[in-house]
Design brief:
The protein is largely without helices or strands and 101 residues long. It has a single domain, classed as Ribonuclease Inhibitor (Leucine-rich repeat, LRR (right-handed beta-alpha superhelix), Alpha-Beta Horseshoe), CATH 3.80.10. It has 2 helices and 4 strands, in the order αβαβββ. A 4-stranded parallel beta sheet has the order 1-2-3-4. The chain is globular, with a radius of gyration of 14 Å.
Amino acid sequence: MGCCVSKSGGDSKASRVARWRSTGIVALRDSKLKSLPDEVLELEKSVRTLDLTHNKLVDLPVEICKLINLQRLILAENLIERLPINLGKLQSLKIMIMDGN
């Protein structure tokens, strides 16, 4: 009882972060992002899939290496000009999609 009570209807920041943590999937497609939100980086070990398709990202922060269990990084349709040198530290990374940058 009370395990799934929501104080507010809709998609609050807290409920999004809780969903990302439980599923391991962070889907931020078509969000007009210019930078990666800090709350994504704070999830660290929880994130397995990060979908940032069709945003306005120019680069990724070096802190991306905190996502040590990241397996799929989807950066299609952004404005990526360079990748952080430490991206190679993501040893679980299996798929990276960069089409349309």
